[in-house]
Fold this protein.
Amino acid sequence: MFVSINQRLDAETINIVADEFGFKTEFVSADVVNAISEAEDKEEDLQPRSPIVTVMGHVDHGKTSLLDSIRNTNVIEGEAGGITQHIGAYNVKLPDGRKITFLDTPGHEAFTAMRARGAKVTDVAIIIIAADDNVMPQTVEAINHAGAAGVPIVFAINKVDKPSANPEKIKERLAEMNYLVEDWGGKYQSQDISAKKGIGINELLEKVLLEADLLELKANPNRKASGSIVESSLDKGRGYVATVLVENGTLRQGDVLLAGSFYGRVKAMFNERNQKINEAGPSAPALVLGLNGAPQAGDTFNVMETDQDARNVAARREQLQREQSLRTQKMLTLDDIGRRIAIGNFQQLNIIVKGDVDGSVEALSDSLIRLSTEEIQVNVIHKAVGQISESDVTLAAASDGIIIGFQVRPSLGARREAEKQGIDIRLYSIIYDAIEEVKAAMEGMLSPDIKEEITGNVEVLDVFKITKVGTVAGSMVRDGKIKRTNKIRLIRDGIVIFTGELDSLKRFKEDVREVLSGYECGISIKNFNDIKVGDIIEAYEQIEVKKTL
Ligand code: GDP
C-alpha cells in the first residue's frame, strides 16, 4: 500500500502492521479520543450545587408562562427589572436563599438533541400538563424523552384556575401510563399550579428541590471549569457569543476555553441580566465572548492550560469530525446486532415504535418487550401513533436505538435526519414480520429471504372522478420510478391508508409500463377510489435476497 504520512489506515491494516512489530492494538471510540482527561475530585473538595431544571410539555400547556412567572417573582434581590436578555438559561433565587438554574430550551427535541451530543445537563425535568386539556402526544413524548435520559420528573398540572380544569383526570391518565403521582400513592411528585395567577409555583419549586436533594448534586468550585454549551451564535458587534452552563469548577474571565472544535480566551462574561461578571461557578449560566466559532448546543467545554493545548485538541477534533462525516453508518442497525452480540458488548436494544393505530402500537410493543432474553433486554423507549418524526430520530440517536414503523412512514425531515445520522428505520406492514426480524437479529441470524424495496414515491396533485373508470390521480413521480406492475401503498400524512395494486398507469392517455422521477402521470388504483390531493403513492417490489454467511 502506498500511503502518505497523514493518511489514516483502516483497522485491519493497523492490526497487521502493529503485529509485524510485536505490538498489540486497542481501538477506542471517538468519544475517548475527544475527551479531555480530568482528575477526579476528592470527596472533601466537593460542595453542594444547585439543580439544573428543564420544563417540557405539549404546546400551549403553559411552559412559557411558567418560566415567565418564575422569572418575574424570583428575581435575585436588589436587581429589579428582571431578566433582560434571552440566553437560553437563567438562575433564580428562592425566598429561602436556595437557587435553581432553568434551562430555557425550546422543548424536548432540543433536550434530546443536546443529549445526543453527550451533554447531560438536566438534573430534574418538570413536565407541564394543562388541566383543562389532556395528556397529549407531545406530553407522552416529553415524558419518554426524560425517562430515556434517566432524569427524575416532577409533574406540574397547570391552568387549575380555569373552571373547566380537571387535574384528577390528568392524574388518572398518568396512572394509566404507569406514572402514579404521590397523592395517588405513587412515587411521582406533582403539583397543581396556575402559571398565570401564580398559584402553587413555590410549592412546585419546593418539590423540584426535594427531588434534587435526593440526587445529592455536588461539584468542586475550586478547579478549572467544565460544562456544556447551551446555545451559540454570531453577533454582529461582539463576534461569537456562546451561552455556557458550568457543571464543575469555576469559569473566569481570561480562561482559555475549548468547546467542541472551537477555542478562545474568555474576553468577557455576562449573566442573564446583561451584567458583566468575572466568574461563573457550578450550575451557573454565562454568556461568553471570545470563542473563534460557534459550537453546537450540547457540545462540552473545558478550560485548558494554554492556548496551544486548546488549539491542538480543537484541530484533532476537527479532523475527527471530518473523517466521521465521511463514514455514513455509525449508529446501531438491526444487522449490526448479531455482530455486536458476538463481541459481547450488547446488552440492551432500545426501540421506538410508531404505528397507524393505537392497538397495533400496543400489540407490537408488548411483543417486542417479550423478546427480552437474559442477555438482551428489549426496551421500547417511546411508542406513539403517527408518522415517524424528526424528534423520534433524535431520540433514537441519543439512545442508540432503532425505529420500527408499522404502517407508517417517516416525514421528509425525519428521513433526511435519519440518513445523516445513520439511524435504522425499519418499516413493516405485518406485525409478525417485525417481531420475527427483531428476534432473528437478536439471535444473530438476520438474513431475510424476501425483502421489500420501495422503488418510488409519487405525489397526487389532482384528482378526477371519471364515470365507469373511477378515481384517477393526476400525479408527479417525486423520486425513483413507478411501474405498472408494482405493488403500491397509499400514504396520507405519513400513515398507510391502503395497500394494493395499480389499475392503470398512463401518460397523456397512453398506457405506459413505467414513469420516471420528475414526470407526470395518471394513476388509478384497483378497488380503491378514496384518493386525495397530497397523498403519496408508494411503489414497492418484493425482491429476493440471498442468504449471506
Ligand atoms: P407554551 O406553548 O407551553 O409555552 O404555553 P404558553 O405559556 O404560551 O401558554 C399558552 C396559553 O395558555 C397562553 O394563552 C397562556 O396565557 C395560557 N395559560 C398559561 N398558563 C395558564 C394558567 O395557569 N391559567 C390560564 N387560565 N391560562 C394559562
Residues 307-326 form the longest helix (20 residues). The CA atoms of residues 161 and 198 lie 10 Å apart.
